[in-house]
Amino acid sequence: xxxxxxxxxxxxxxxxxxxxxxxxxxxxxxxxxxxxxxxxxxxxxxxxxxxxxxxxxxxxxxxxxxxxxxxxxxxxxxxxxxxxxxxxxxxxxxxxxxxxxxxxxxxxxxxxxxxxxxxxxxxxxxxxxxxxxxxxxxxxxxxxxxxxxxxxxxxxxxxxxxxxxxxxxxxxxxxxxxxxxxxxxxxxxxxxxxxxxxxxxxxxxxxxxxxxxxxxxxxxxxxxxxxxxxxxxxxxxxxxxxxxxxxxxxxxxxxxxxxxxxxxxxxxxxxxxxxx
Length: 276
Prior knowledge:
The protein folds into two domains: about 100 residues, no CATH class; about 120 residues, no CATH class. The protein is built from two helices and 18 strands. By secondary structure, the chain is mainly beta.
């Protein structure tokens, strides 16, 4: 009699255990992020990494000491590794300045939280201090090439400013500092892995920020800018001639010129782009 009662109870426990394990597997990681203010963020807002939804805001409340807000969010199971020390979180807002343009999609759409993962192998974490704005730089990609450019001045350049090849972004400015003798500025730029082969011994770099105005007697007024990125936040462009020279090593140094070399648009070095 006891056995007849125990078997259904045991079966029910097994079913409940399976259901609990399934729910646990489908539930993501819960994290807390502290911000100075909610900046228009609402419950249900997305967490986004590389344009993909990786989580959702579950709750927003004032901190106990009223010094900020606490955002409780749930990462998707596939994105649980983002919950590690060094990961950065910020509320994406529209921003237009001389140094950057970002978050314009939030002018009409809802606010969301941007995510940048911490270093590989970092310990897990559940609480984070949110950033006031997006970090200027993402971690360097494996296989990227970093070179130094000696410039007369920094101009409108900033960490994160684009590096352009034929108006296509192929890298970014990583940092800059005064040259050791104080006679210029050393600008470190990073070329993304697929495009590192484009930089050779005879490659030329030039400052591509701002707008150029050319007045011709017969052609009239002509306004030139390398790209929207260059117009607003400053940029560096480069080109490689038909006889490009040998590939360069990490830390190679070039001069950052104030204007492009004549006829660079017609240079055709025919260098295969790796990974394409």
